[in-house]
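pasting DIAC acetylchitobiase for the record, 116 residues
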Amino acid sequence: QNHVCSLSKVPFRGAPCSDAAGRQVPYSAIMKQVNSSLSGVLWDKGQKSPFYEYQDSLGHFHQVWYDDPHSISLKAAYVKRRGLRGIGMWNGNSLDYSKDAVAEQQTEAMWQALTP
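structre below
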């Protein structure tokens, strides 16, 4: 409700919410699922990140947070404006390196976003 996702407390270095409460999803799967999701792309102004919501076959609701070229470019521009030493991605292996034309375009856009 209101795009608030409640998670059970999962211990992880004392944090109530962590990777232990979810799983990593390849970028290609996110790009395929977001268009058919319940919400479509949503945007969090504070995190400057997109997310979406979907319902699985068992009726459970899920939220998926991710970065896209727009959110990465905003973060890279912030790093540049502040004169910080750099920026990195969580896992570049989650990008789709297949020869599919759409995948190639998405992957290239992600890497280009890192250089504002």
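The mean pLDDT is 82.
The helical segments are 27-34, 69-81, 101-113.
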